[in-house]
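User: Hi! I have a protein structure encoded as tokens and I'd like to know what sequence might fold into it. I'm fairly new to this, so please keep things simple.
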């Protein structure tokens, strides 16, 4: 049985030597315990440092190490998709893990055992979020709950650390969309699955590749990829404002016939600002969905491979 460990990389020259050492150690243990023959696939997502040079050097030293270099920075999800594409042709299953090694590599052994027991997908799920800052912990948990409330099918506290069988990989390739939210797409496949819990660790070196701006963009992609409830909410918001308008008309007519003169400039000013903000929010929400439609209908390739080793 062949397992491909897929590792998307972006400017990870500081982490790469330690990542390679630990993952090759896991690959050796998989072989020693007669679980699987493992290969390590790095996907360089257009890094601007020495990441690709290090990948080539590791590949020259060890035949278990492979590398793909994307022609341009396409983002984490696209780089991961490129690695899963490769794995679907070269392995019986793929395990995706980030290069920062905050996900516990020891959990890979448990994932492979679950795969041998007939599971097509094995999710790595964090036990707790004690290593996160207060802000990141609150926003991440709020995101999972919000997506659930919107009707999205997503596994709580699961990111992109998972095992997928070749059957699951082939099924995932049937998804045509370019705006990808893989943790939701994979969970919607419905194949037999299980969960492996682990403790997330601190990053050993380098900086996080997901600052606040990217996290917000990623969250927005997740919400709009799996739910149309924000559009429905705009309808409800419009109905709410119509009710307010009807109440205001009744109040104005009653005041007129009773002879009361109410200047009302303050209430008018507040109403204009509030309604104007609501309109801009509604237009922006619609625009987000229209923008996704624009990206999808062009059907551009997800990525181009510049080099491989």
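Assistant: Happy to help. Inverse folding works backwards from shape to sequence: for each of the 309 positions I chose a residue that suits the local structure. Here it is:
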């Amino acid at each position: 049985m062949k397992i491909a460990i897929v590792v998307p990389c972006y400017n990870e020259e500081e982490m790469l030597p330690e990542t390679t050492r630990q993952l090759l150690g896991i690959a050796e243990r998989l072989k020693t315990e007669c679980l699987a023959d493992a290969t390590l696939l790095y996907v360089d997502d257009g890094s601007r440092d020495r990441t690709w040079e290090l990948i080539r050097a590791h590949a020259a030293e060890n035949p278990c190490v492979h590398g793909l270099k994307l022609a341009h920075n396409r983002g984490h999800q696209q780089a991961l998709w490129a690695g899963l594409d490769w794995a679907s042709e070269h392995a019986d299953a793929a395990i995706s893990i980030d290069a920062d090694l905050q996900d516990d590599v020891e959990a890979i052994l448990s994932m492979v055992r679950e795969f041998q027991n007939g599971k097509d997908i094995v999710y790595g799920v964090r036990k707790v979020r004690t290593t996160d800052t207060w802000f990141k912990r609150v926003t991440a948990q709020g995101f999972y709950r919000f997506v659930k409330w919107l009707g999205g099918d997503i596994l709580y506290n699961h990111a992109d650390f998972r095992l997928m069988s070749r059957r699951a990989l082939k099924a995932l390739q049937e998804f045509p969309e370019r705006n990808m939210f893989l943790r939701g797409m994979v969970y919607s496949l419905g194949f037999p699955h299980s969960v492996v819990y682990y403790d997330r660790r601190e990053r050993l070196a380098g900086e996080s590749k997901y600052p606040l701006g990217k996290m917000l963009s990623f969250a927005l992609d997740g919400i709009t990829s799996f739910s149309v409830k924000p559009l429905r909410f705009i309808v409800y918001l419009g109905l709410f404002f119509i009710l307010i308008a009807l109440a205001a008309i009744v109040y104005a007519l009653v005041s007129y016939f009773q002879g009361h003169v109410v200047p009302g400039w303050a209430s008018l000013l507040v109403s204009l600002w509030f309604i104007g903000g609501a309109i801009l929010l509604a237009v922006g929400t619609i625009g987000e969905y229209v923008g996704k439609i624009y990206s999808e209908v062009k059907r551009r390739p997800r990525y181009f491979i510049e080099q491989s080793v």
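A useful reference point when you look it over: The two ends are 22 Å apart (CA to CA). Feel free to ask if any position seems puzzling.
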